[in-house]
Structure formats: C-alpha cells, structure tokens
Amino acid sequence: MSDSKKKLSFLTVISTVICVVFVCEAAAPAAAIGNQQFFWWIFLILTFLLPYGLIVAELGTTYDGEGGIYDWVRDGLGDKWGARISFYYWVNYPFWIASLATMFPDILGMVFGVSFELPVALAIELAFVWIVYLMGRSKAADSEWVLNGGALIKVAVAVIVGALGIWYAMENGFASDMSPHTFLPELTNVNALGYLSIIIFNFMGFEVICTMTDDMADPKKDIPKAIITGGLAIAAIYLFAGFGIGAAVPADQIDPDYGMIYALQTMVGDSAIFKIVCIAFLITLFANMAAWSFGVNSVARYAAEHGNMPKVFASMISKDDMPNGANLVNAVVASLVLALQLVPIEAISEGIFWMLFGTSVVFLLLTYIPMFPAFLNLRKNDPNRERVFTFPFKGALMKVAIAVPCIELVLAIVATIVPLSAEEVSEKVPMLVIFLVLLVIGEVVRVWSARGRKEEYKGLTPELAAERLAAEAEADAEWRRLNPPHPAASRGARP
Known about the structure:
- This protein is mainly α.
- The chain has 21 helices and no strands.
- The chain has helices at 10-21, 27-31, 36-62, 69-77, 79-101, 103-112, 118-135, 144-172, 190-194, 196-201, 219-248, 259-268, 272-305, 324-338, 346-349, 352-368, 371-381, 395-417, 425-449, 462-482, 487-491.
- It starts with 9 loop residues before the first helix and ends with a helix.
- Residues 490-495 have low confidence and may be disordered.
C-alpha cells in the first residue's frame, strides 16, 4: 500500500461510525415503546452493545482484511457460513434503500404542501435509489464531505427534535405519563417487544469501518477508539431524541414510519423550522445509504471473489477500483422491491415502509449471530496472532457475555416477524413470508455461487493459522529487506 494514498482522518472515522450506525428514522419506532425504552436502551447497551463493540474492536484490529465481518465468519466457521452471512448482510441493504425511498415523496409532500400520485411518487423513489447508486461509486476516502456532513446533519436533526420536544413539553405539559413505574419494562406488552429489534438495530454497523482499513492512517488505534467513542455518543443522541419525541407525542400515537416528522410537526406546525428540518432529514438518508454502501459492497465483492456470492458482485470500476457490480445490483433490486407498491393488497401497499424496513432489520440482525461463535473459534484456533486490542472478559464470563447477545438477536428477530397477537397477523405475515422466501433464495445463491470452486474452505485451523503467521512474517521480513530504514533516520540524526 502506498504511503501517498489519501487517508481518512480520525475525525472522519468517527463521523463514519455516526453516519453508518446512527439512523434518524429509527428513533421514532424506539420511542413508540414509551418510557420503558430508556430501560431497554440501558439494558441493551450493557448486554449487547458492550460485548458486540468489544468483539468487533478485537476482530477489526487483529484481522485487517477489507472483508470485515465476512472474513471473520469465513475464517471462524468456513465457506458455508461465510456465504450465508454475506447474503444476509447484502440483502438487507437494497430493502433498506427501498424503505427509505418510500419516505421521500410523503415528506416532500409535507414540505411543499402537495400530494403525489403513485406514478410520481414511484419516480421520486427511483430517483433516490439511483442517486444513492451514483454516490456508491466513490471511494470512502474521496467522500469525506459526505461522511462528515452526513454525521453533522444527523446529529443536528436529532438534537433539534429532542430539544424542541422538551421545549414543547415545558410549554404544554408532557404528552406521556412520566411516573416512575412507566420507565419499567412491560414484558407482557408484545407490541413493545417487537420494537426492541429497532434498538438493537440502532447499534449495528460498527464493523463497516473495518472494511475501510486501507483508507485509515492507523486502523489498529482508530478502530477501537472510534467504536467506544462513537458508541457512547450514538447512545446519548438516541436517548435525547427519543425523550424529546416521547415528551411531545403519546407513545401509542407515535407512528413507526414517520414518527419523528409527525412529532416535529406537532411541536412547530408547518413552520419554516419544520420544512428545514424535513429537508435536512431527507439529506441524512442519502448520507446513511452512501456510508453503508462502502461496507456492504466490499463484503459482497470479497465473498464473490471466494465463490460465496455471484460473480457479478466482484466486478469493479477500473478507474476507482470500486465494487460497481454489487452497487448496481443493489440499485436494481431496490427498484424491483419498490414495485411491490403496485400489488393491490392493502397490507403490502399501505404498510410498505415498515414491511421493507422490518425485513431489512431482520436480515441485518441475522448476519451477526454467526459472528460470536466465529470469534470463539478464532480465539481457539489462532491464539498466537498478536492482538492489539483484546476482549476483556475470559472463561465462563466471556461465554456468558457472548451468549447473551446471541439470545437477544434471536428474540428480536422472532418479535419482529412472528405474529405474537391476532392484531399483528396482517402486519407481520407479509414480512414473515418475504423472510422465508429470501432465506431459501440465499441457500440457492450459496450453492450456485460455489460452482467451479476447487474446494470448500472449512475455516482456520491451528495448522493453517501457523502457516499464515509464518507466511506473513516472511513477507514482512522481505519488505524490510527491500525497504531498509534511512541510516540518518535510524540514528535520529539530521541529514
């Protein structure tokens, strides 16, 4: 790697974390849980974010390949699971793009006081998809303005909404009961439990920065610092925004689709502030998708190169060395998914945002479950590799710290797509059907992609790990031989 290559500053790395992980549109569904969201936020920060973030920090600084989570799972569990998670990781993205695209016409309509018919709305949605495609053609290091600007606008929107919500409550009284007992969890409230997946979803994405190691000046230091600093900052922003939304709008009246926008409208009406924040909110959607594209496309490309995703995902833009194949497939699939709005079934056409967003959330959560056993296998089979940052828990405590997030992920997935009451059947059955169909498609894609591969990689064994370390040491020694330090520099003398 050339030293002259443009590098991401640490500020940009932090901005990338915020831009990728912090999702403005996810604050409202979490706030719909009511005051108990604060209990769940704190509980999940301790039991999920902490172990997940620390594991990602160790894996990201120990294994510096640009494949990120795909590399970790493939080395830990082999090609089969590497292929599965690469598909899950990828498929969440076009569904997410499509879900955000459906927000555009409605919010633009609120800003300009118009209502778009389906053909016009669909055209606006497709424009969003293909603009995101064009943004995904740029390298992360050449898109600092997107990452930094996107993070700044996201934080500003969340803080403004939170502050306005508190102001509104001070002027008009709190919209929700603020009694101490309302902050305790209601385990019997199945509707609230369904939104817990959104809180976990709000913590996802730290591994994306691990796919940008080539663009970082010092990834071994920057990654753990960015995860810890960014994680705490993001949690604080979510809590502040969620409190503001809940202060202005009763929990049972918060719309999971446009809750933040409707809450803002309640606070300030159709004022200039409302219109400005709406436009800023729409800009954050572009930034969020652009930031995610860097990680998703890299993972898909790496998987395709190993025969674990279709070869089209490995095609590159020669000039920029970017995975354009993955980027193009994202746009095509998202465009086709948006066509679901033409289906004359109300449960599908009317609840399109939550159906697409919920499906995206489920597949993203599913991606992370294999990461935890893969981490244990890598600890066991590759013990001699230098670890700049080490997961602090050991023995039985480490196993518990790893098991709990896995259980939470499974429960969150079930609560999101499985109807737990009669009222949820019409809403969740379409998501469940799509989920099962995509699981089958994923297995077909896995088998089909493996055609022509000489042998299946079973994962890193102690023997392979030793061979890899020896080869890396030999390559490092050869590099040092060919690039000896300047004599004056080695003595600390001036020329």
